[in-house]
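Exam revision sheet. Question 4 asks you to relate a sequence to its structure. Input first:
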Amino acid sequence: MGAPAGSRGIDEILAEARSRLRRLEPEEAHLAYRRGAHLVDIRPAAQRAANGEIPGALIVERNVLEWRFDPRSDARLPIAGRYDLPVIVFCQEGYTSSLAAAALQDLGLHRATDVAGGFAAWRLAGLPAFGPADVYAYLQSVAPGDPRLRPAT
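Answer key, structure tokens:
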């Protein structure tokens, strides 16, 4: 069965979203945050627990992002009362965050963007982060079976 007329694949949707963004490398995002931009972590709780978090980032899971940042929404965050709010969204690897940042731009938040490579790239860049909650589980997920990664008993 062929794709329905007018439908687009996710690669096309992602490319269109990214064509509107000035995506930031992790170091650029960190500098923008230090100058007052808002870092927004849209990852689910399980992903944050497994991989860690960025100190000071707002946690707004993806399923409520638009309601929390739309200046017209009764469910908006207190900081989200203006359209020129600098918002830098990140997810684990930088895919979902591109779609989310484009959705914020659709609401009128013209300064919304995301972190290229997501939290994983942030961590690899050595930028401030903490966690994961269970370090041994994380390390074993990266190097399964390595006996050096078992907790001391």
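Marking note for examiners. The chain has a mean pLDDT of 91.
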